[in-house]
Amino acid sequence: MTWLVERGIGEDRALLMDGEHVLGAKLRWPGEMFAGQHIEAQLTSKPSGARRGVATLPNGQDILVDHLPPDLTEGQRVSLTITRAPIAERGRLKKAQGRYTSTRLADAPEWLAGARETREFAEGAWEDIWHTASSGEIQFEGGSLLFSVTPAMTLIDVDGDGSPRDVALAAAPVIARWLNLFDLGGNIGIDFPTVEAKADRKAVDAALDQALADWPHERTAMNGFGFVQIVARLEGPSLLHRFATSRTGMCARMALRQAELAQGTGNMLLLSIHPALKAKLKPEWLEDLSRRTGRQIEIETDPSLALEGVSAQMISR
Fold first, then answer.
1. How far apart, in whole angstroms, are the C-alpha atoms of residue 184 and residue 25?
2. CATH class label, 125-232
3. For 275, phi and psi rounded to 5 degrees?
4. Using CA atoms, how far apart are residues 24 and 4, in angstroms rounded to an integer?
5. How far is CA 254 from CA 134, 258, 259, in A?
6. pLDDT mean over 185-190
7. Distance (Å, rounded) from C-alpha 77 to C-alpha 147?
8. How far apart are CA 211 and CA 117, in angstroms?
9. pTM over 0.70, yes/no
């Protein structure tokens, strides 16, 4: 298995590949903190003798820190390893979390160290995941999944036409696959159709055990109402969280990706987008797009387009 990284405009995209099969996906926007990153900050809040506190970066961003030595005092510089990146939610921001390190760490690890860079993923590989994350809905034989992000947890609603047992058994491997493709972690609730027989609930639990065997987590058994709760390590915002809080930003970056991959002849690249996306396109991003494509860029807005409805074409003028 190998992580492939596509260095896009305004974002880095990653796919975990096993041959031609996509097993996982991750997304990072430049300048964001990431799990495993080494940084230095000033300790700005720490009760006397406590092991937890708050450290602040020069830009004012706070980090919740644990494993602090009791003798450290406020105002000191501390070395940290990020354990969870900040996560935007509706109406609030979950602060980054970090762990104190006793020595200064000069060599900061790269995001997905050891990954192999590629100019372009296989056709459709990223698009399929992106559009599925945008809708939050997945169809499988006999049923469907609907993912919903809330501040407390990510909820997965399982529905289908067959018996509750059959629908739940068919959903288990599909859920496991998309947990990795969406880069989900934290608290996850799965609302299966109500499975009344205890033996059938145990069968679903066994199916989940098998499907999630390679994914570190803790899980409750299915209760009498068909609900299962999963807790997994949370390292940063999932693709679903990004769509929930930054849909226009996600769509603007995808528009640039589509423009960069546009084929044809002509001395100009015409990008037709919804007006809301134009406000998100930074001048340096457009300069990068012009450099990558070797063409002048013209932006055309159309309010009738959906945010995801982008058109990129080469023209001559």
1. 10
2. alpha beta
3. -55, -30
4. 10
5. 11, 6, 9
6. 96
7. 41
8. 29
9. yes
Count of helix runs (H) and strand runs (E) in the chain: 6, 20
Question: What one-character DSSP code corresponds to residue 108?
Answer: P
Closest C-alpha among 204, 203, 197, 192 to residue 144: 192
Question: Which residue intervals of the chain bear CATH 3.40.630?
Answer: 125-232
* Per-residue pLDDT at 104: 63
CATH 3.40.1260.20 segments of the chain? 247-315
Report the 10 Å Cβ neighbour count for 248.
13
State CA 295 to chain mean position distance.
31
Contact 184, 235 (CB under 8 A): no
Q: List b or e across 143-174, with b for residues whose CB sees 16 or more CB atoms inside 10 angstroms.
A: bbbebebeeeebbbbbebeeebbebbbbbbeb
Q: Which two tokens stand for residue 199?
A: 């033996």
Q: What is the pLDDT of residues 231-263, one digit of tens each?
A: 999 999 999 999 999 999 999 999 999 999 998
The pair of three-digit structure tokens given for residue 125, joined into one six-digit string: 């590989």
Which pair of structure tokens corresponds to residue 241?
A: 């969280």
Pairing mode, if any, of strands 218-219 and 227-232? antiparallel
- Which residue is listed with tokens 């849909």? 247
For 194-226, the pLDDT digits (tens) are 999 999 999 999 999 999 999 999 999 999 999
Homologous superfamily, domain 247-315:
Ribonuclease E, catalytic domain (3.40.1260.20)
Superfamily of domain 38-101: Nucleic acid-binding proteins (2.40.50.140)
The C-alpha atoms of residue 6 and residue 112 are separated, in whole angstroms, by 12
Distances (CA, A) of 167 to 115, 137, 201: 37, 16, 12
d(CA 17, CA 23): 6
**What CA–CA distances, in Å, run from 119 to 7, 40, 235, 300?**
7, 33, 26, 27
Q: Measured between alpha carbons, how far is 156 from 250 in angstroms, rounded to an integer?
A: 22
In the chain, CATH 2.40.50.140 sits at 38-101
